[in-house]
Amino acid sequence: MVSSERKNRIHYTFLIDDANKLIPCDDAAQGFLQSIDASVIGEQILKLKINSAMIMSTVILDNISYSLKVIPTADIAERSNHRTPFLSTITHIVIVQNQFLFAELLHNIGKYTTYSKEFEKVIEDYDDPLYINNANGDPLCFNNRYLEATQFSYDDFFGANAYTDDSELFTPVVTPTVMRKRVDVTCFQHCKSGRDIVTTGIPIYLSTGDFRIVLFMLSALDNSAINSYHRLAIQKSTSSQIKNGIINSPTNINIVAESPLMKKCMQDAIKVSAYHVPCLLLGSSGCGKELSSTLLESELFGYEAGSFTGALHKGKQGFFETANQGTLLLDEIGDMPLDSQAKLLRVLETGEFYRVGGNTPIRTDVRILAATNKNLKEQIKKGEFRSDLYYRLNVAALHIPDLKDRKEDIPLLANHFSYNYNVTYHTHKVFSKELLQIFENYRWPGNVRELRNVIERLTILSTSTELTSVDIADFDLFDEEEEASGIAVSGLPTLEDAVDQLENILVKRALAIGGNTRRAAQLLHVSQSTIMRRIKKFNREELDELQQSNKIEER
Fold it and tell me: How far apart are CA 405 and CA 409, in angstroms?
């Protein structure tokens, strides 16, 4: 469970040294590491660390969604010219950020169109050291945790002898870089007070997209925390997996798996990944198995010069060539033409293929992942898919569950997508509990792809910072579900009876989606009393079903 000590803590900072040890910067990071399964975050960090560039991913810990950012210190060397002997051993900075609390902070700041003393009240509610300045670098406010971490005083910023320039307080100054690049900037800073800190400057924008303020989140380098955990090695929890070949290439993981079905799928995937065998990914369209664009033979196998009109004069390598000693992902394998299936089968059985227009065999050692939303056994019966290829691919099969079957993941996915789109579009949108409940009750026929698109539309189109059921009232969000279920009237009832039937159907549907009469009323744009009057017309069986599902509540 998440400890109460970090209830309002957003930001945790760790360092990785040249011996590959994970080092908490301060007591907050040390306490965070002690309260979670360190092996989970250690494995994720190691995977991201393999990349040479800064990588951000998402990790779920104790049912809370965190962004995980691994930053090579080589990328910040030009900004961090103060390097102690200890800092010279650091190869990466790791930032772990509570996505919900960060979105909440931006939402609360975003309530004010200009600087207000209310900013101080907002940031004082958080356990992080927080500091805000304007686009000119002038200080606006900070909380008490900031003064404790930096050992500055109020007078250093606002007293009679206050410093007039950031460069008199910090080395280096971060605000100009944030303004120029319009992105988050992380670096080591040395304070005039003598403290060394890791600071992240985050640009905050107006709804018009204009630059507004810079929010600083920081962690002071605390010797007791650093010394206590200097021996904690990331490799300790992942060395066996590395030996088994699970972690052997650059990876950017964004997987949310809190529901039992998705956890089982991920556990199976980890088992399969240790073996060099083909694997089938099965699931409905949009559930998160899409892997690559449509593959033609020229893309799969490459082609020789002049083999067809429009071909490059030097020819081109295909995916089987470029993926040698790696993994090739084939999407919608069920749509592959039969003649292409035969050629794919030959590669799987012999490890050889020919380029289009070529006559020299090329050897390759590739593991195949094949994805489809079709029933391949039914396709075999219809003569649309080769049985020998099916059995060659079906050494291991993973079924990706539909989103409607993994309700525990829906709020986490929604917040994950919202976090990413807030960063992309410089917005500060957060979901009301009511809207998240509606998302959980919806069947999502388009699966994760539909959820992601809905979140993006809400981020772009909604004028509110807190998103509620009102914001989706005009969406065509539920059109597909209505079309799938249909509304049918048998025979030729009177118009009054037909209207009654239709109202019953709509009220039941709104209750199923909204979860209670208040939200059902909002979805149908009627009063709650109207919904209650309609419910009174239900028969006993319908009433019992609603009461058992707790969808009738007192006003």
Answer: 9
CB of 22 closer than 8 Å to CB of 94: yes
Q: Is 505 exposed, middle or buried (0-12, 13-18, 19+ CB in 10 A)?
A: middle
One-letter identity of residue 61 = L
Using a 10 angstrom Cβ sphere, with 0-12 exposed, 13-18 middle and 19 or more buried, the burial of residue 357 is middle
Helix (H) / strand (E) containing 469: helix 469-472
- Position 242 scores a pLDDT of 29
Nearest Cα to Cα of residue 431 among 107, 88, 128, 56: 107
For residue 382, the one-letter residue type is K
CB 218 within 8 A of CB 136: no
Q: What is the pLDDT of residue 253?
A: 44
Q: Going by DSSP bridges, is the β-strand pair 170-171/185-191 parallel, antiparallel, or unpaired? A: antiparallel
* Residues facing residue 217 across a β-bridge: 130, 200
Q: Residue 310 is encoded by which pair of tokens?
A: 């429009």
Please report where in the chains the tokens 């419910």 appear, as a residue.
535
Mean pLDDT by 10 residues, the chain (555 residues): 58 88 88 81 69 63 81 67 74 89 82 73 92 86 93 85 74 87 87 91 74 88 65 39 31 58 70 74 68 60 77 81 86 87 91 88 90 90 92 88 88 85 83 87 88 91 84 65 53 77 82 79 85 79 62 53
What pLDDT shows up at residue 293? 37
- Yes or no: say if 257 and 263 are a contact pair by the CB < 8 Å rule: yes
> 188: which strand partners?
198
pTM for this predicted structure: 0.58
* Cβ neighbours, 10 Å, residue 51: 14
**Do the beta carbons of residue 347 and residue 385 sit within 8 Å?**
no
Give, to the nearest 10 degrees, the angle between helix 38-49 and helix 235-243: 60
Beta strands 367-372 and 327-330 are parallel
